[in-house]
Design brief:
By secondary structure, the protein is of the alpha/beta class. Among the domains are: about 280 residues, Rossmann fold, CATH 3.40.50.2000; about 240 residues, 3-Layer(aba) Sandwich (Rossmann fold), CATH 3.40.50.2000. Helix content is about 45%, strand content about 15%. The protein is built from 33 helices and 24 strands. A hairpin with a 2-residue loop joins strand 5 and strand 6. Bound molecules: 1-beta-D-glucopyranosylpyrimidine-2,4(1H,3H)-dione (CJB). 1-beta-D-glucopyranosylpyrimidine-2,4(1H,3H)-dione (CJB) binds next to helix 6. Belongs to the glycogen phosphorylase family. This is Alpha-1,4 glucan phosphorylase.
């Protein structure tokens, strides 16, 4: 094959061509890595045509574009996702196998792009895929972190963190756009010129764009995820270099690159650092400039902006985009302030993802004013205009010496949304009660969703095949069609096939766990899985307490008919969150003791898999029997893992929190293991003095489990290792672990009982699948398009 004969139609030839001419490798010497890159290039070629057609169609229609601004996009691997969406799986597999290679090995060779911490970042990635699937013209804007979320390992049970390095290899999915640069200012001062305020920044950096195309289901449409990297305005100081000061010569570049160097690993807590605010302004300001550049290329009248632009703030991290847009409209384009404010507000919308007070961002006005002096003035002016219109308003954006990003985002938004029905209701009565009183139409709900292409079709090929054999393949693009499975859940023959799928997935997971971690899992046991960030409100410590109590009871009563269980944990803790790190160590210590107990270890195992990430989730969820969603009611805004488990046939044990409430309504209360206080009861319980001590005193099982931790049997020689946890559980216990323990225990024994009836369990699991179609992120995005963005699909117009 010659270079000028780039093959388009034959996929196998296209791979060979890229191996030879793009990668410069002789097929005889190519490694898995080379073949994976060659395959990726061949796939990418097929995306590009559709990508350009979509962009052209958007320009032609002069359509409204949606801009999704997010500090995090937890993408994971893209090769399989792209192959699945282009429906190239069979061709790709056949081609790769014809070279004598293992197709799955190739897919698994790709590193995870972990540009996010957890739910919020993964939601953004699911949304990008659904936006493309629905043909909604949209751009994602974020940061191209050189290092994504840290790699986790354990040393004597303790979490160790190592830098993640996804860009150490060529990233085929990105297109560098060196021409799309903006120079952004920081610091300096505001002077008055001709009676007008003028910001004179002191420091400058450049933002450089990298574009990742995002292809929708069946390749019908493609959008762009544009990630910004920091670059110096003058990359190199030749004068200093020639004078011999080599370090100083490269200083500007090093500083600029620091901005996009690493993802902050805090999840649901406020980072509050200067670099974080710098990152936030950096990517928000670059995005706003890009949005305006695109708009102004075709429109002269800025008042048309809200008809052509919808901006979504994914939490408050990009909140500064609002004041930045206002500043440009007013200071640089000369619109009157009130008009600039009205236009900004008509374009911007804000999604709240948490009500935890420690996660609500605010900045000291000193730091804020130093970095963004003009924005501070603008925020004051917005507050002043607002106070004029609503004299009884209480929550200004600036107050008590701080700039409060939630308040700011609310004031500057057309719509504000929560991510589950319960969470949206709580927004109205708690954190945003005052704003809701003034603007009763502004808060709307959009319950989260997950993309079925990745979270069922891609990650669970066996179940996907069974579903398609049963009801056809329309469900992949229209998940509510899963309802058609419902009659089959009453058919014993079909249920047997369904149960065989789960058993095979569990066997796969067990094989992998043996190969990778030397673990022997009992595939007959119930696989009970809790995977998510480690946080007190998510209550992994409730789960491990139950494991301890169960183990104690098994030892006491070894001949009873126990349902065998493997409790599987996965998740990272923020490096500075010491309580969460203690929980990790406790789980590992407990696992060590329980797994070594020959009297019980056929019936109970505890496993903590390190370095939980998107890929591990794709492995675990299809193999799970039970989904642990046990947060303190009122604290988990939505959850999205809960949806993935239900969709893959793992019933939930859970509280009435976040989207659990909606999952339970849809799958039916008889197919969901409910326990625990409601959000309202939880609030009331906190007011009871000694609520934890009372709960412990009233529950001998709980008491004995806590005593075991206190005694040091899990930390030989160091009985105080978990003094903090013990003290918390018996003292303040803000997250009500002790209060919910007895009911959690009860629900777990209901699970045991239900699982012992394998046919009944398979039916329950199948009904979870059949009734989870509503949790597609396609449904969520349709909701945003209709209720928030007023954006239209261009499918069929490309
Ligand atoms: N969430 O992942 C994060 N990070 C935050 O800083 C705040 C919230 C999560 O967002 C998810 C997507 O909406 C929710 O499902 C989840 O409940 C929430 O904790």
């Amino acid at each position: 094959m010659a270079k000028d004969e780039m093959p388009k139609s034959d996929f196998r030839d296209a791979i060979l061509w890229h191996l030879t001419y793009t990668l410069g490798k002789d097929p005889d010497h190519a490694q898995v890595f080379d073949w994976r890159l060659a395959l990726s290039h061949a796939v990418r070629d097929r995306i590009v045509d559709r990508w350009m057609a979509s962009t052209r169609a958007t320009y032609r229609a002069d359509a409204k574009r949606v801009y999704y601004l997010s500090m995090e996009f937890l993408i994971g691997r893209l090769l399989q996702d792209n192959i699945v969406n282009l429906q190239l799986a069979d061709q790709a597999q056949a081609a790769i196998e014809s070279f004598g290679l293992d197709y799955r090995d190739l897919l698994l060779d790709e590193p995870d792009a972990a540009l996010g911490n957890g739910g919020l970042g993964r939601l953004a990635a699911c949304f990008m895929e659904s936006l493309a699937t629905l043909g909604c013209p949209a751009y994602g804007y974020g940061i191209r972190y050189e290092h994504g979320l840290f790699r986790q390992s354990f040393a004597e049970g303790r979490q160790m963190e190592a830098p993640e390095d996804w860009l150490a290899q060529p990233y085929v999915w990105q297109f560098e756009r060196p021409e799309a640069r903006f120079t952004l200012g920081f610091g300096g001062r505001v002077v008055t010129r001709d009676g007008k305020p003028v910001w004179e920044p002191e420091n400058f950096v450049q933002s450089e764009a990298y574009d990742v195309p995002v292809i929708g289901w069946q390749g019908a449409w493609a959008n762009t995820l544009r990630l910004w990297a920091g670059r110096a305005v003058d990359p190199f100081d030749l004068g200093r270099f020639n004078a011999g000061d080599f370090t100083a010569a490269a200083e500007a570049e090093a500083l600029a690159r620091t901005i996009s160097r690493v993802l902050y690993p805090e999840d649901s807590t406020e980072a509050g650092k200067r670099l974080r605010l710098t990152q936030e302004y950096f990517f928000s300001a670059a995005s706003i400039r890009d949005i305006l550049r695109r708009f102004e290329a075709d429109h002269a009248d800025l008042r048309l902006l809200p008809q052509k632009v919808a901006i979504q703030l994914n939490d408050t991290h990009p909140a500064i985009a609002g004041p930045e847009l206002l500043r440009i409209l007013h200071d640089e384009r000369g619109l009157p302030f009130d008009e600039a404010l009205a236009i900004t507000r008509a374009c911007v919308n804000y999604t709240n993802h948490t009500l935890l007070p420690e996660a609500l961002e605010s900045w000291g006005e000193g730091l804020f004013g130093e970095l963004l002096p003009r924005h501070l003035q603008i925020i004051d002016r917005i507050d002043a205009e607002d106070a004029k219109a609503h004299p009884d308003r209480r929550n200004a954006a600036r107050g008590e010496g701080r700039v409060r990003m939630g308040e700011l985002s609310f004031i500057l938004s057309n719509r504000v949304n929560g991510v589950s029905a319960l969470h949206t209701g709580l927004m109205k009565t708690t954190v945003f009660a005052d704003q809701h009183r003034i603007w009763p139409d502004r808060i709307v709900n959009q319950t989260n969703g997950v993309t079925p292409r990745r979270w069922l079709h891609g990650c669970n090929p066996r179940l996907s095949r069974l579903i398609t054999q049963t009801i056809g393949d329309g469900w992949v693009g229209d998940l509510e069609q899963l309802q058609a499975l419902e009659p089959h859940a009453a058919d014993a023959g079909w249920l047997e096939q369904f149960a065989a799928v789960k058993a095979a997935n569990k066997a796969d997971l067990s094989d992998w766990a043996r190969r990778e971690h030397g673990l022997t899992l009992n595939p007959q046991a119930l696989f009970d899985v809790q995977i998510k960030r480690i946080h007190e409100y998510k209550r992994q410590h409730l789960n491990i307490l139950e494991a301890i109590a169960l183990w104690q009871e098994m030892r006491e009563n070894p001949s009873a008919d126990w349902t065998a269980r493997v409790k599987i944990f996965g998740g990272k803790a923020a490096p500075g969150y010491f309580f969460a790190k203690d929980i990790i160590r406790l789980i590992n210590d407990v696992a060590g003791v329980i797994n070594a107990d020959a009297a019980t270890n056929e019936k109970l195992q505890v496993v903590y898999l390190p370095n939980y990430n998107v890929t591990l989730a794709e492995r675990l969820i299809p193999a799970a029997d039970l989904s642990e969603q046990i947060s303190t009611a009122g604290k988990e805004a939505s959850g999205t893992g809960n949806m993935k488990f239900a969709l893959n046939g793992a019933p939930t044990i859970g509280t009435l929190d976040g989207a659990n409430v909606e999952i339970r309504e849809l799958v039916g209360p008889e197919n969901f293991f409910l326990f625990g206080l409601t959000a309202e009861e939880a609030e009331a319980r906190r007011a009871v003095p000694d609520h934890a001590a009372r709960a412990v005193a009233g529950d001998p099982r709980l008491k004995r489990a806590i005593e075991a931790i206190r005694s040091g049997i899990f930390s030989p020689g160091e009985p105080d290792r978990y003094a903090n946890i013990v003290e918390n559980l018996t003292g303040a216990d803000y997250f009500l672990v002790a209060s919910d323990f007895a009911d959690y225990w009860r629900a777990q024994r209901e699970v045991d009982f239900a699982y012992a009836d394998r046919d009944g369990w398979a039916r329950m699991a199948a009904l979870n699948v059949a009734r989870s179609g509503w949790f597609s992120s396609d449904r969520t995005i349709r909701g945003y398009m209709q209720d928030i963005w007023n954006a239209k699909s261009l499918l069929g117009q490309e």
